[in-house]
Amino acid sequence: MKTEALFRQDAYLRSCEARIIRVDGEGLLLDRTVFYPQGGGQAGDSGWLTLDDGTRLRIADTRRAKFDGSGPDDAMHMPDVGQDSVQARFVEGQLVCAEIDWERRYRHMRLHTAAHLLCAVLPFPVDGCSITADYARLDFVTSDPLARDTIDVALAELVARRAVVSIDTMTDAALEANPDLVRTMSVKPPVGTGRVRLVRVEGVDLQPCGGTHVANTSEVGAVRVARMEKKTARTRRVVLTLE
């Protein structure tokens, strides 16, 4: 049995009922989850697993499972430290309520969408990215000088456009025929299943992405360039934060 990744189609789901299908030293595997596992530059979700009797286990992080036979959506929910006695009560076959830390997740969604807007403002290949609850960092392959004020104004205009953000798919063959859609050099979109997940910002950006996003650019809110630096002769780093 593999994990059903509910967040892929609805990033706004905050909780779900699930059954524990594996418990080991790495964490807990569920048959379905709203927790996003770290990947594609985006941090994994944190939150709680709760039994019917109210016993609550704090989840500090979520990572992709690495055991033999694990699938691409199998996510290990990794408990916070110091909860051994609580974790011992969570065993295979039990039903739990899986609930994400919504405030943290929503910041991931806002900043990840802001990163896509930044890709539209700066049309250069991306050689590294990180999406956390505090910032979004992208490394652009360019030697061109970048102007912070110009970027801030362009981002504000895209946020104010209230563009719809939607999920689509494309066949592996279609993506291969359109390589320019892939902006990231260090993180390649998963292929081999026949279809690739796309995130479309209407009239602004379209690229393969497995992360979580807001439904409209207006939800990004006030975002600004917090830091810019020259990483190498060919790479410029831009760090975004929310106001």
From TrEMBL:
SMART domains documented for this protein: tRNA_SAD
InterPro entries: Ala-tRNA-synth_IIc_core, Ala-tRNA-synth_IIc_N, Alanyl-tRNA_Editing_Enzymes, Thr/Ala-tRNA-synth_IIc_edit, Transl_B-barrel_sf, tRNA_SAD
GO MF term list: alanine-tRNA ligase activity; aminoacyl-tRNA deacylase activity; ATP binding; metal ion binding; nucleic acid binding
PROSITE patterns: AA_TRNA_LIGASE_II_ALA
Swiss-Prot/TrEMBL cofactor(s): Zn(2+)
One of the GO BP terms on file: alanyl-tRNA aminoacylation
GO cellular component: cytoplasm
Domain of life (superkingdom): Bacteria
Family matches, as Gene3D superfamilies: 2.40.30.130, Threonyl-trna Synthetase, Chain A, domain 2 (3.30.980.10)
Keywords linked to the UniProt accession: Aminoacyl-tRNA synthetase, Ligase, Metal-binding, Zinc
This protein's record includes keyword Chaperone: no
Pfam families: tRNA-synt_2c, tRNA_SAD
Subcellular localization, as worded in the UniProt entry: Cytoplasm
Domain Alanyl-transfer RNA synthetases family profile: from-to ranges: 1-243
The name this protein goes by in its record: Alanine--tRNA ligase
Species the sequence originates in: Paraburkholderia ribeironis
